[in-house]
Amino acid sequence: MFRTLTLILALLMGASAVAQPLRIEITDGVIEPMPFAAPRFIAQDSGAMELSGDIVSVLRTRKVFAGDGSKLYELSNSTFSDVSKSGGYTVSQFDKWQFTIFGNNVIASALGQNLQKFEVGTDTVFSDLVAIQAKFVTVVKDFVVSGYNSDQSQRVRWSALNDPTDWTPSQATQADFQDLVGDHGPVTGLNGGEFLTIFMQNAIF
């Protein structure tokens, strides 16, 4: 009986040792952009060809941006440099920066801050794109789209056609907004591209 209990105890101790989670500690490292090939996209018309050239131009520069509660940064030679607008920013610890690309412009958003833009090849620091504040930003075809605006958490708003600086609602420019009023909660994310997908706390549109 004693030997049986001893054997069972040994097996349990062995199983406990095997079940310990694997821990990997990274104490050092190098942050560098990954090299890649960026051929020009096949376009159906001259407008699409120009847009594809803009996208490839941005990709080939291999720009990497990041942000924290007070600054925006650009990665250069394994070092992050401050490229914030004058005066910096005040972003809550519960929020984070979102980035998207429109033409040669990198556009950044964070709740409580005006939409920011950095024109690759021209700008050295970010600046206000427009006096609109939103938590999320993406691009859908030829529109820049924002979600969870500072004045309405269920609002999705978009720029004029092919003009990210014009957000005044207008039938002529197609800039407008839509409040998705209901019990589905606030906007929690946007996915752009050919079509727009809106993620909300309790629904997807």
Helices and strands in order:
Blueprint (H helix, E strand, L loop, with lengths): L1 H17 L27 H16 L3 E3 L4 E5 L2 E4 L15 E5 L2 E5 L4 E6 L7 E14 L2 E7 L2 E7 L17 E4 L7 E5 L5 E4 L2 E2 L1
Antiparallel strand pairs: 1-2, 2-3, 4-5, 5-6, 6-7, 7-8, 8-9, 9-10, 11-12, 12-13
Counted by DSSP, the helix tally is 2
Q: What does the overall shape look like? A: globular
**N-to-C CA distance:** 65 Å
Name the structural class. Answer: alpha+beta
Largest sheet: 7 strands, antiparallel
Rg measurement, Å: 24 Å
Number of strands: 13
- Sequence of strands across the biggest β-sheet: 4-5-6-7-8-9-10
Q: What share of residues is helical?
A: 10-25%
Task: Please indicate the percent range of residues in DSSP E strands (runs of 2 or more).
Answer: 25-35%
Arithmetic mean pLDDT: 84
List low-pLDDT spans.
2-13
Topology pattern, helix = H, strand = E = HHEEEEEEEEEEEEE
Walk me through this protein's architecture.
With 205 residues, the protein is α+β, with helices and mostly antiparallel strands. It contains two helices and 13 strands; from the N terminus they run ααβββββββββββββ. It has helices spanning 2-18, 46-61, and strands spanning 65-67, 72-76, 79-82, 98-102, 105-109, 114-119, 127-140, 143-149, 152-158, 176-179, 187-191, 197-200, 203-204. The strands form three sheets. Strands 4-5-6-7-8-9-10 form a seven-stranded antiparallel beta sheet, with no helix packed on it. The termini are far apart. The relative contact order is 0.09.
